[in-house]
Design brief:
The chain is of the alpha/beta class and 249 residues long. The protein has two domains: 106 residues, Periplasmic binding protein-like II (D-Maltodextrin-Binding Protein, domain 2), CATH 3.40.190; 98 residues, Periplasmic binding protein-like II (D-Maltodextrin-Binding Protein, domain 2, 3-Layer(aba) Sandwich), CATH 3.40.190. Helices cover 34% and strands 23% of the residues. It has a five-stranded mixed sheet. The N and C termini lie far apart (36 Å). InterPro entries: ModA, ModA/WtpA.
Length: 249
């Protein structure tokens, strides 16, 4: 299993400016709307889409990947990200109509496989659970908002320096959670919503003070269908669905 480590010499701004990578564009829904969305939104957004009157095609990925897709002119109507800075970057690219709005928020947890017990968020608690060979999974801080929030939290808690060499950095937070659910890693730093219904368990809640607020901004893209704004409003108003899937509202 390959371990990828963040490039500490790169600033967040330079990463955003330099990510002109080729990506696979989504296919626009026939007679409906297409939404690019952060992977962590999938369970809730899949359900919300079934309550919309016209077909909705949903394309999920890491926020950095889908932001680049949108900036490159992907055939989509809405974009829903897991971080405000990626949305600000998109606005700066001139591909967003009007203003963005928040549709949900979340919190971070340390997750473990089914049956795992609670741990303390201290060096002894986390490294004691990992043991000498254990690894933990998280999103890549360079492109995945959950990874960036996670790095901020671990730095605040004084754990990042020791844990960074043991991190498996995933392309999105749902992939990080999959490592945990399968038992491939001992711990995973993921969103609280990711744990719901997966078989993984929440073994420690990360204090909200340890990182920037986790919000999901959504926006209508240039060239979108006329009903796109109404769909964005519909998603933002589905608070009961988001709450049922573990989002923090």
């Amino acid at each position: 299993m390959t371990v990828r480590r963040p490039l500490g010499c790169l600033t967040r701004r330079s990463v955003l400016a330099g990510l002109a990578l080729s990506v696979s564009p989504p296919v626009r829904a026939a007679g409906g709307l297409t939404v690019l969305a952060a992977a962590s939104l999938k369970p809730a957004l899949d359900e919300i889409a079934t309550t919309w009157a016209e077909p909705v095609a949903l394309s999920y990925g890491g926020s950095g990947t889908i932001a680049r897709q949108a900036a490159a002119g992907a055939p989509a109507d809405l974009v829903l990200l897991a971080a405000s800075d990626w949305m600000e970057w998109l606005v700066g690219q001139g591909v967003v109509q009007g203003t963005a709005r928040s549709v949900a928020s979340n919190r971070l947890v340390m997750a473990g496989p089914a049956g795992a017990g609670q741990i303390e968020l201290t060096s002894d608690g986390v490294e004691g659970r990992l043991g000498t060979e254990g690894r933990f999974a998280m999103g890549d801080p360079l492109s995945v908002p959950a990874g960036r929030y996670g790095q901020q939290a671990l730095e605040t808690l004084g754990l990042w320096t020791a844990l960074r060499p043991r991190a498996i950095l995933a392309e999105n937070v749902r992939a990080a959670l999959a490592y945990v659910a399968r038992g491939d890693v001992t711990l995973g730093l993921v969103y609280a919503s990711d744990v719901v219904g997966t078989g993984a368990v929440d073994v420690a809640r990360i204090p909200a003070r340890a990182h920037q607020p986790i919000v999901y901004p959504g926006a209508v893209l240039a060239g979108a269908a006329p009903s796109a704004r109404a769909l964005l409003d519909h998603i933002a108003q589905a608070t009961d669905v988001f709450a049922r899937h573990g989002f923090h509202l």
